[in-house]
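Is GMT placement plausible here? Inputs below.
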Amino acid sequence: MKIGIVCYPTFGGSGVVATELGMALSKRGHEIHFITYKQPVRLEQLSSNIYYHEVNVPEYPLFHYQPYELALSSKLVDTIKLYGIDLLHVHYAIPHAYAGYMAKKMLREEGIDIPMVTTLHGTDITLVGNHPFYKPAVTFSINKSDVVTSVSQSLKEDTLKLFEIEKEIKVIPNFIDISKRDNPFTECQRGLMAEGDEKIVTHISNFRKVKRIDDVVKIFYNIQKEMKAKLIMVGEGPEVSTAKQLVNELGIAKRVMFLGESNEINKILCFSDLFLLPSETESFGLAALEAMINGVPVISSNAGGLPEVNKDGFSGYLSDVGDVEDMAKNALAILKDKETLQQFKNNAKEMASKFDINAIVPLYEEVYEKALQPVK
Ligand code: GMT
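Reply from A.M.:
I modeled the complex. Tokens:
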């Protein structure tokens, strides 16, 4: 199959899922065309059946806002025609499903029918898409997609609650490539980050408000009162400076490292003992899954799809959003002794292996087959 994938090329979860999916599909013999404004960060290499097509938006002084979806839909039309692409898979409704639908309509005028699969990722529904400025266009583009998927049951329910959806939504959870995570870093270079008896606590995100970064710092503050520990903060975003400020106010600057964006997530997770994800909302929590497959237990909130990923009392613990005290108490319960920590590490890996890429990618292939069937 020739598949066009539209996604955000950044470190965000939706872009990571789209890129990993495209790479896995290419290994299964499909021809993959990524169509976006920058080469996706997780795209390891372009190969004979992986292509990347850049969307350029020419600057023009008249445009107060550069018309990205116009440029994207034109690029889609050209690329689909040039390469004979069979199907479009758009990740994140805004503006990808909208631009995809316009491309579909333009191609129809030329006698080309291209089905569009839309995958909903979370913030496109719960945070941004539901805004009155976007809602009619998001509702329209979801309903006009040939197949709609969501990354968790919780996101499906939110979508049905927030929008007037006429389409069936199929849940296909996010996934992880276990083979890539058989950690090659046997030594884990733990010594780079902490002293022998220090525990390493990690948080990875895009540092937006929804991640409740202050809670991450406060949970860690409570942990380090009871045991020697370091906090590693990975990622960039608007909340980094307030987090740094809080770290200074609490007098724990020596114990907290801000690493910025990183392409060495597995290396970092290899020497981590615990992962913190106290988000306000989280449709799935890919970062938690990535931690778990590296054998890192997760202390998270119970928001959105997190309970579908992190099993309370097994792969980590779940608490109500904002209940920093409970999260710290649970963290200490995991870290308190070697045996308990090892048990949670094993459990985290076991739970994560349920989301193996080899089980999930065929579900997308089924969806593509369905979308390609002519409408009766
Ligand atoms: O978490 C973010 O802010 C990024 C966002 C994205 O669209 O990239 O992540 C969403 O999609 C991920 C991949 O499906 C999910 O794992 C995240 O839970 C989801 N984020 C939220 O719902 C806040």
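Short version: The two ends are 22 Å apart (CA to CA).
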